[in-house]
Amino acid sequence: MEFKFSKSQVTLAVISFIGAATLASAPTLATAAKASGNYVAGDFHNHTTCSDGSISM
Questions:
Q1: Helices and strands (DSSP H and E) totals, the chain
Q2: How would DSSP label each residue in 1-47?
Q3: What does the alpha-carbon distance between residue 49 and residue 53 come to, in Å, rounded to a whole number?
Q4: Which of 7, 28, 41, 52 suits a disulfide with 47, CB 3.0-4.6 Å?
């Protein structure tokens, strides 16, 4: 039995597999080390010198 695949076809298949495996595992790895956050109620907005109302833009 002889397969007629060129090196470029095999290379493309390997790169595609590695890319798909990376994309499939990325969300799992990104959220693995994150601790859950705490909800803090309050008004945390900020003003700058351009947004405090003293300068008309």
A1: 1, 0
A2: ------HHHHHHHHHHHHHHHHHHHHHHHHHHSPPPP----S-----
A3: 8
A4: 52
